[in-house]
Structures are given as C-alpha cells and as structure tokens.
Amino acid sequence: MVRTAQEAERFRDREVRIVATAREIAEQDGWPAVTVRRLSDAIGVSQPILYRHFPGGRDEIVASVVVQGYADLADVMRSPAPDDDPASALPRLITGYLRFAREHPAVYEAMSTARTSIVFASDETPATLREGFAMLERAVGGRDDRDRAVRAELLWSLLHGASQFAAHDRLDPALDDVREEAIARLFAAR
Prior knowledge:
Elements: H1 5-29, H2 36-43, H3 47-53, H4 58-78, H5 89-103, H6 105-113, H7 127-140, H8 145-167, H9 176-188
C-alpha cells in the first residue's frame, strides 16, 4: 500500500506509541498484563489496527521492546564522562548497565529472558545489539578478537548476575559502589 509521507509518519508514530505503552504496562503491572487487547485499549485503536503494525502480535511487540531496550542500554553505556576520560569508560559502562537494569526492571527482564525471534551472537543479530556488545568488547579489551569476545561475554554475564541478585534483594545496596569498582578492577587487567 502506497502511503503519503504524512501517513507513513503517523504509522511510525503509532508503532512507537505501541512499544512505549507496552513498556509502561510491563513496568507497572508486569509482562502478563501486556496483551493485544490492553494495548489497543490504552492506545485507542482497534486490535486489527494494532496487528497491522505488528502482524506477529504480542511476541513481535515484545521483540521490539527488547531491541529498543538494548538501544537504550547502549545509550547509557556510551554516555560520555564529564571530562571525557577514556580510563573511566569501563567503570561508567558498569555503573550505567547496572543502573539501567535497576531502573527498568520489566524492560531488562524482557531483554534477558523473553523468548523472541531475536538471534544473538550471529550475523542475524540486530545491529543495535551488536553495537552494544562491541562496547563491552572495547571496554574490556583482550589479546585478540576471541579473547576480547570471551572477556566481553564474561563481563556481560557478571553484570547480568549482579543485576538479578540486586533485583531480588540478594545483594547489599550499601556495597553497590564497592562492587562496581571491584568488577572494573577485574576487567581492567588485560
């Protein structure tokens, strides 16, 4: 169907609203509350209109939340230091990652556990996700590509574990700063 530029913009704006509303509902009431019916009611469109945007329904919407979540996380991890000091990149990345997981628990849950069609560690991985992983690789360094990839995977795993323990009150929040510094020291040694 041929669309005018104005129609295409409205279509894209509605898609953005659908994804944002899914995130809001999930953050307020959890992922089980995110249904096509609730989304269409919240946005004020019929379910067929919603399916026109996301033919895969809820699963496709969740996949869009996941990709957008990784884009948001990458923005947090890349935010420049006030003095633009490259030595602060790793600690800043660690702090940003853990803060993002803490401040957006439902989005982070979808990013880390939702079953989606998104493929990781492949040429099919969306560019946004590859870009975020490349930030981890640059931050940890390594002897070669393989060493750098493993170090990045280990950092990611450690950050994920720490964020999940923190989300379930298994870590002392008074030690957050000390914990983040210790993680940075572990990965700073190349």
